[in-house]
Each structure stands twice: as C-alpha cells, then as structure tokens.
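Re: the 171-residue chain
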Amino acid sequence: MPVLLLNPPSTTDLLPNREGTASFGAMSTGFLYPPHTLAVILAALREAEIDAGLVDAVGEEIGLEETIDRVRALQPDLLGVYASWGTLDVDKQAISALRAAFPQTPIVALGTGVRYNGEDLLAAGASHMLAGDPELAFARLASGPLPEPGVIKAHDLLPDEHNYAGLLRHP
C-alpha cells in the first residue's frame, strides 16, 4: 500500500479528538469523534488514483503497539499522521514510535492545527509537516516526488486552492 493515513491512538486514558475546538484538537473522556478530515483526504487520494488506506486507531480503540503492527502489515511507502495542537503530547509519542519502527518511511504530520507545533512533530520523528488544510494538499504531496524533509505549505502545493495561510479558498 503506497499511502496510509493514520489517526493515532492515545497512550493515556483520554481520547484524542483532533477535529475538536475548530481543529485545534482536544483530549476528553469517553468521546469518540470520527476523523472526517482523514475521510476527505482518503477520498481525494482515491480520486487521484493513489492507492491509499486508513487506520483509525482511536475509533478502533487499539493501542500503539497494535497500531504499529497494522502499519507494518500494510507496508506503506508514505504515512500521513493526523495531529493537532490539543493532542500534541500523544501525537509526538505516536510519531516517535512510528519513526523507531519505520526508520526509512516518510512520515507526514498533517492537520489544520499542526502549523502551531510543527517543529515539535518534526523533532519527534516526522520527516515532513504539512502546514495548512490537508484535504486537497496531501493528495498533491503524495503524488510525489516528496520534497526535502521539513515544513511544506499547502499554498505552495496548490496555490489556486489555498490562501497564503494554507486555508482552503473554497471549502
């Protein structure tokens, strides 16, 4: 599988909702929220005829070890990891564990709120951080080749679709 999207699990008793609080993210007890953003990204990847899949570790209530086993079984060439400001600690833990398990696989941290903590996610092991709304930009990024590791701006990938802040012009 060339591209895998991941809604990473929590390593605490709290559940991550990366779309909560206007995509800044939040941790809460007993509240599962479907990752709509990842569903839209997956649809955009499929529309672009890119082989892609999704593991929603939060929704499936699986832990980090089982998540890594799932990723290993799917053998992606590119891993998109959903992250947010409010879930930063568990996101960094997940990215760090993924980097240890898959040292050669490009890992892209993505999510509207990651622009506020992108350097932390890169330091945790993400090879790239997609700044801005990822719904359309990630498919462009995945169509390759990947740029050098670091911050990638959605506006630079699709300037007609994103404003300079990386937000979609016509959501």
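The mean pLDDT is 94.
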